[in-house]
Design goal:
The protein has strands spanning 9-14, 22-26, 32-36, 42-46, 61-63, 66-68, 75-77, 83-85, 94-100, 103-107. It has 108 residues and is an all-beta fold. The chain binds FE2/S2 (inorganic) cluster.
C-alpha cells in the first residue's frame, strides 16, 4: 500500500560490541543510531541530527537519557526523540530495540 513502510528487525551488534556511553550507526535502508547509556540501556534514534546533516551514530555524546549533537550542541531525549534545547526543533524518530541474549536488534 502506498505510504506504508514495513519495519524489520535488523541485527545491530552484540552487547559486547557497544560500551556504555557509546553510540554506533546501524547501516541499512533506514540509517539508525544505536546508543547505549552509561546505565547500559539501549536506545535507537534516527542517525542524522534533525537540525542539519550529522551522524549521531558516528559522533555524539550521551548524558543521562539524552544524546547531544556536537555540531551545534542540540540535545534530544533518547526515549521520545524530542529536542530538549535549541537549535533543534524537530524530534528524532525513535526505534524499538530488542536485546535477545547477547544480540541487539533494531526494529526499523
Ligand atoms: S547538526 Fe546537530 S545540532 Fe546542528
Amino acid at each position: 500500500m502506498e505510504g506504508t513502510t514495513t519495519m524489520n528487525r535488523r541485527f545491530a551488534c552484540t552487547t559486547g560490541d557497544l560500551d556504555p556511553g557509546e553510540s554506533m550507526t546501524v547501516p541499512g535502508d533506514v540509517k539508525v543510531a544505536l546508543h547505549r547509556t552509561e546505565d547500559g540501556e539501549f536506545f535507537a534514534t534516527a542517525d542524522s541530527c534533525s537540525h542539519e546533516e550529522w551522524s549521531l551514530g558516528e559522533d555524539s555524546d550521551l548524558e543521562d537519557d539524552e544524546v547531544i549533537c556536537p555540531l551545534h550542541m542540540a540535545r534530544f531525549n533518547l526515549r521520545t526523540g524530542e529536542p530538549t534545547c535549541f537549535p533543534a526543533t524537530i524530534a528524532l524518530q525513535t526505534f524499538e530495540v530488542v536485546v535477545d541474549g547477547d544480540d541487539v536488534y533494531v526494529v526499523a
